[in-house]
Structure formats: structure tokens, C-alpha cells
Amino acid sequence: MTSARARGVALAGTLVAAWVAAAWLLSGTSVPSDLALPKVDVAAVFGADLVARAERYRRFLYVDWVLAEAALLVTLAVYARRGARLARESVAGPIGTGMLLGMVGLGLAWVVRLPFSAAALWWERRHGLSSRAYVDVLVDGWLGLAGTFVALSLALLVLMALARRLGSWWWLPGSLVLATVAAALVVVQPYLTPGLEPVGRPRVERAYERFRNAQGVGDVPLRVQHVSGDTSLANAYAFGLGPSRRVVLWDTLLDGRFTGREVDVVLAHELGHHSSAHIPKALGWFALVVLPGAFVLMLATRGRGGMGEPAAVPLALLVVAVFQLAAAPAQSLVSRRMEAEADWKALQTTRDPAAARGLFRELAATSLGDPSPPGWSQLLFGTHPTLADRVAMADAWEARRGP
Amino acid sequence: MEGRTPHPIAIRLDGGLDRPRLIVFFRPLLVVPHLCWLALWTVPAAVAVVAAWVAGLATGRVPGPLHRFLASFVRETAHVSAFLHLVGRPYPGFLGREGSYPIDLTIAPPDGQRRLGVLARILLALPALLLASAFAIVAFVAAALGWCAALATARMPRGLRDLGAASLRYEAQTAGYLLLLTARYPDASPRLEPPTEDGG
Fold it and tell me: What pTM did the predictor assign?
């Protein structure tokens, strides 16, 4: 073995070992490892009629998603073969031309998915879950592309410049840069999100302060987002990093459909994301996924002269789309573990499993969420444990606590 | 206008009228990275124009390096504007180099300027700025009509292209006057220099 090859093998071995160690550290959870979830009678808990309606509702969305993904992949495959011809429409140099090819590819992807987005919106409107106008979705999507184009152009600027300077080793520093940019975006995102207002409900704010102290979370403001003009779905989320950390409730959670105790569970759940450092951990996972992703991208684009060449960009878009699809099960698994931990924290904080069960039943009713979806869909889209599993966790927590 | 010396800031029209539909459709969004870049570029350009103003007051002439820097800024703005308004076909670069885009500005080297004109440049430029904003509306309307036509036929109508080019030229001359690239007032004549390309 030559010394260069030996150095390469040693580097690869070190990277793989570091990757496995980091993944092991990031996958830690405070949910007891011996927690056995009892079987839940879905029809009895959620109601047979609701389960049937939710299954029917979700089935359409599954088919819509599969068709949209198929159309996207076919389009990107065609674009990967023919897109490089558009390079003659640019006098912006190799990197500027790469940006043009990347933006046109993403624009095509948006256009191709538009009918499927419209079909999903039609289905949601038909079930009373959305009141957004089609033209609003069209205009918002078009304008949203502008932000996507800027982000893509920045990413291509960095990666192509690195590739032109470092050759096939760009993927190592490139991954680091992408992870750093992602962290910066997570920090600034709460400051850029419009329409976040104080809740202005003393009961909710008092409960939030109590749970914040109980979980040892620092100064994390609670905000409400007014979405009831567009949707009847209920949601909440935790986002931001360091000083920008926030918990946000959609105003649809506070419209009277959910009891005060159920809202308490939501507050404790979202605080659980912050107290369990889920957002820094998610960034860690992103860095871990980007590293092999960039390596695959480097390998795949070598035939087109490498990522430094604009002709490689259309192929790179296809590779990224396929990689994202392939990584979706792992991504969902990581997300499910975090959500399960936040549920567990909520139970430990509120000590109110009855309210948790009520919340999950109400979520199923208001969002037509399938309490027990097919395994393949949970594998691909299951960012949260199934509603049946969440009820089972509340039961398991209660059983541990004793009567 | 016969017999007058040409304006120090002139527009050059090269390239045909064909516009691929795909690039036409996304054109307003494709320039967003350029607009971000120009927004960043505005900061040093503002510093440079203040320095040029001080130097112009002191010596009656804008120093060559400042003139070149500001000329690149005005030229880059014109290239991006030409692409956005479908006056030019290809995707423009980011550096505003002369000769790098088919719709190009030729900007004469720095010449002497009256100190009083330099001192009162902002005030003197106000009427031209008002007219330039009217030209901007004209260019927008021409681009909107041209966008629809080019989506249908993959070709920019010559009249709309020339109207857009005349508007861009006036805007560029106004910017050049304001940024002290020239002491010559913008020329509002709609007449364009003879095109150098086959179909244009």
C-alpha cells in the first residue's frame, strides 16, 4: 500500500469513527429505554368514524405526494441530461452560470410540483382544513422562490468556488461551510419571521413561566402566530438558537377547541424541545448528513468535470433530490425520537396524562391526522410518533407513576 | 441634436431578439442574486461617490480609480437592468466589465468638471431623476408587455426592446451624472445609436 493510499484509508477510518461516535452522542434521549408502550385500541380512543375519515383523507395526500415526487425526479433527470445546454444563455462566468442553471432547475421543480400542490390544497379546502385562495398559494410560492434562489446561489457560490480551488476535496470544507450557514440561518430565523406577537393571555403565560422554570429553560419568549385566516389546523413549534430561542403557538390552538390543560401540554412539549437541546442536536444531525451527502455529490459530479463546472449543476440537483429522498427515513426517525422525548418531558412537567390524551384526540379530529398510519408512510413522513403511540406513551407514563 | 458631440455615456446594442421561454419565465426571479449583490455594492459605491465629490471639489476632476469603480457599478446596474427588462438575452455577470454584455455602456474617461456643478450636483440632478423615474415606469411597462410576447413567441418585439434600451440609457446617464462620472446632463432623446447586430 502506498503512503498516500494509507493516509487516505486512515483519514476515511477516522471520519467514519468520528461520524459514528457523534451519531451515538446525538441520539441520546431521556425517554426510559425500558419504556414499553401498551397497545392502544385506536377505534375506541379516537372513534371508528374519525379513523376512517382520517385514513381516507390521508390516502389522497399519499398518492398526491408519490405522484409529485415521481414527476419531480423525472423532471430533474431530464434536466440533468439536457440542462447544461442552457449554459450558453449566460455570460456570468462559471460560477454565475452554475447559479443560473441551479435556479432554473429549482424553478422547473416548482412548476412541476404546482399541480400536485394545487390538488393537495383542493383536498384540504374540501375538508375544511384550509381557506387559502389558490392564487395566494401561487403568488406566495413564486415569491418564495426568490428566497430559495438566493440561498441556492449562495450555496453554489461557496461550493463551486471551493471545488474550483480544492478539486475533489471540496466536500470536506464545503460540508463545514454548509453546516455553519445552516446554524446562522437557525439563529436569525426567529428575527426574520413576521407576525409573532405576545400571547396576551395571563393563564397561558403563567403556565408557560411555571413550565419554563420546571424544565430549567432560560429566557425563551412565548409568541403567538395568527394563522386562523388561512387554516384551521392547530400547531406549535420551538425554534431559534441561543438568544433567538422562541416558542410559538398558532392562534388556532387558542380558539376554544382545546382546553387550558391541553394547551399546557403543548407548552411543556415545545419547551421540552429547548430543554433537551433538540435544535442544536438537529444542527448536529444536519452536519452529519451533509458530510456523506457532499461526498456523494463529489463522486456523482466527477463525470461532468466536478462541482466547479456549471455543467455539473443540473446533475447535482438530481443527486440532492435522490439523496434527500433516500435520507428521509433516517431524518424522520431522528425527528420522531426528539418528538417522543418532548412528549415525555411534557408528561413529566404537567403530570397530566389525561390532558395529553385529550390533546392527541383533539389533534386527530382537527387535523384529520391518521392515528395509526401505514408503516411505510410513517417511515417516510413520520416526523412525530403516531397519535396512537403518543396516547400509549401517556398511558405508559401513568402506569409508571402508579394510581 | 445634429452636430453635438456624443454623450460620454452611450449604450451599445448587440445580440438578437430571440429569448428562450424558460429563461423568460423565471427572469424576474433570476436577477434576485444580482439585486442582492448590487445592494451590497451600493455601500462602497456610496463611499466612493463622497470621495469623488470631495476630490471633484478640490481638483475639478474625479480621480481615475474612483471613476473606474463607479463606472463599473453603473455598468453592472445597466447589465442587470437590461436582462431584467428583456433588453438583453444572456444572464449577466457580476463585475460590470466593459464589453462583457451585449447591451453595454461605454463610459468616457474622466474629464474636467466645474466645481460649482460638482458642489450642486444633487440639486442639479433632481429634474433628471424625476424624468428617470418616469423612464423606469416606461421600461417596466415595456418589459411586462415584452415578457408576455416573449413567452408566446420566444422573441422580444424590436420596438419594445428599443424602448426599454432608450429608457435604460437615460437612467444610466442620470446615474452617471449623479455619481460624477460626467458633467454632461442626460440626453432625453429617444433616438438610439445604430445597432451593431444583424437582427437588432
Answer: 0.87
